[in-house]
């Protein structure tokens, strides 16, 4: 039975809790299973097999969960495609955003921050986006709303953030995916004296890092990455009270047409996490490779050990879970 209640008042807003809190452990069990399957292909140079293993494991685990689930963000093929129905159909109606293996290249090369990710919302809570890039900006909690904005230049955003934090610009650390398309952005940031942490892969983890600045040292995430990963990151930020904006990069007529079919009329529209991940939201991730957010899957002669995080927007809780699976 679904748990229904009211969250304490936040800025005058009462939001209903529509998801059974026991579902959080079910979601973690699913990401654990996918992460373990993908970890068997760490460092073996085969992205496709690693991804297929994670997808198959997630599909298999979803079949026995008592939910009536619809995939909103999924894979290109198989049971995790957009619109697919999963679960036993006997439980609450929910939306799913999944990335069975975020950072498949990192897994194939045994590089940091590959993980299995899933977001769950009450029905209609997760935004459907076309296959394209999304421009993103994210910072952690504790700053005035609107202090950073995609319509401002990176220099202006950095200056505003440094002023709000009470530090010189030279003490700000920005996280950016290491891609040729970001060369001008990286040059601008370094020209300001900003320290830039370049990531080889995995911008969901990068966005989350901005919430834990004291531990990660990262103040802001800038740049573009996958739109579907943007929705998953927004789900996490919604649970952690960070700030995030996204804007689809619709640089072809075909992408703009697909966006219109999804109800996105203005190609320049900015999305906050309230638009990308609304309602009651759960976010879960399990590490595949060793990372700064989560430990990777570890195998011993008698067990397999996983490291996961599960978050919920209604309670604003984050639970870090270490699980030993007996072999």
What does this structure look like?
- There is one protein chain.
- The protein has 327 residues and is α+β, with helices and mostly antiparallel strands.
- It folds into two domains: 5-124 and 280-326, Fructose-1,6-Bisphosphatase, Chain A, domain 1 (2-Layer Sandwich), CATH 3.30.540.10; 133-276, D-Maltodextrin-Binding Protein, domain 2, CATH 3.40.190.90.
- It is 30% helix and 28% strand.
- The chain has ten helices and 16 strands.
- The chain has helices at residues 23-39, 47-62, 104-108, 154-165, 183-192, 203-209, 213-216, 227-240, 253-261, 273-276, and strands at 5-6, 16-17, 68-73, 85-86, 93-102, 115-122, 133-139, 173-177, 195-199, 220-226, 243-249, 271-272, 281-287, 298-299, 303-312, 317-326.
- The strands form three sheets. Strands 3, 4, 5, 6, 13, 14, 15 and 16 form an eight-stranded mixed beta sheet that branches.
- Helix 1 (23-39) packs antiparallel against helix 2 and helix 6 (203-209) runs parallel beside helix 8.
- The protein is globular and about 50 Å long.
